[in-house]
Design a protein that fits this description.
This protein has a single domain, classed as Purple Acid Phosphatase, chain A, domain 2, CATH 3.60.21. It has 241 residues and is of the alpha/beta class. It is globular and about 45 Å long. The strands form two sheets. It has a seven-stranded mixed beta sheet, with no helix packed on it. Strands 7-8-9-10-12-11 form a six-stranded mixed beta sheet. Strand 7 and strand 8 form a beta hairpin. It has six helices and 13 strands.
Length: 241
């Protein structure tokens, strides 16, 4: 079993990286690709979207994802929860192998423990339509944070890897603008919660998407968009175009 991680897919808009991923053709259903948020399926249930979903479901590997800010949260609110590899998940449909790794869970995959916490703030939400192209559920609430703390209590605040959509407040500057002296952008309750994790959680590497770039902004952090990396690896210079 091997686990890989990549960045936003946006409901097919940024899926070409998966179509071009030759290694994926040699994998099996016991291998996993985790999308670090903004999976974006389902969205409008169009014929094109259904074809994209069918293609993903036909992959020899299994697709997993944490939610981002661009998800149809009303759809996921109706999907049942299933315990899977130690954490709660939701399948895209009753017969689909695609699973959402829900917020504040710890999963055991390939001999590694992975903490997941989806969500982020949409910077363009003022241009979106509530409950049509934007949902307030994009950000976790305090109940999610309390459940996450309880889960981390149960594992002694130690995991191998963290996979989220956005990052901690302290990582915003090095992620967005590596130049020294740049001021932090506006923060939210989720980036603040991730600051708490940075202080308390024992982990090896943290992967996230959201920022539409591929980089290692800090020693134990990788922000992903087009690149696909094996869980545990950092981005190498040849990974980034």
């Amino acid at each position: 079993m091997t686990v890989y991680v990549t960045g936003d897919v946006h409901g097919g808009l940024d899926m070409q990286k998966l179509r071009d991923w030759d290694l994926g053709d040699s994998l099996t259903s016991d291998d996993y690709l985790i999308v670090a948020g903004d999976f974006g399926f389902p969205w409008d249930f169009s014929a094109e979207e259904c074809a994209d979903i069918a293609w993903l479901e036909s992959r020899p590997y299994t697709v997993l994802f944490v939610d981002g800010n661009h998800e149809r949260f009303d759809y996921w609110a109706e999907r049942p929860l299933e315990l899977w590899h130690g954490g709660l998940t939701q399948r895209l449909s009753d017969t689909s192998p695609i699973r959402r790794l829900t917020r504040g869970e710890v999963f055991e995959l390939g001999g590694s423990t992975i903490f997941t916490m989806g969500g982020a703030t949409s910077v363009d939400k003022e241009y979106r339509i509530p409950y049509s192209s934007w949902w307030p559920q994009e950000l976790p609430g305090e109940r999610n944070f309390e459940e996450a703390r309880a889960k981390l209590d149960s594992v002694g605040w130690k995991v191998d890897y963290v996979i989220t959509h956005t990052c901690s407040t302290r990582m915003l500057s090095p992620t967005l603008y590596p130049a020294p002296g740049w001021n932090y952008p506006a923060v939210d309750r989720l980036t603040a919660f991730f600051d708490e994790l940075e202080d308390r959680l024992d982990y090896k590497r943290w992967y996230y998407g959201h920022f539409h770039r591929d980089a290692n902004p800090a020693e134990r952090h990788a922000v992903l968009y087009d690149c696909i990396v094996r869980l545990g690896d950092e981005l190498q210079s040849w990974d980034v175009a």
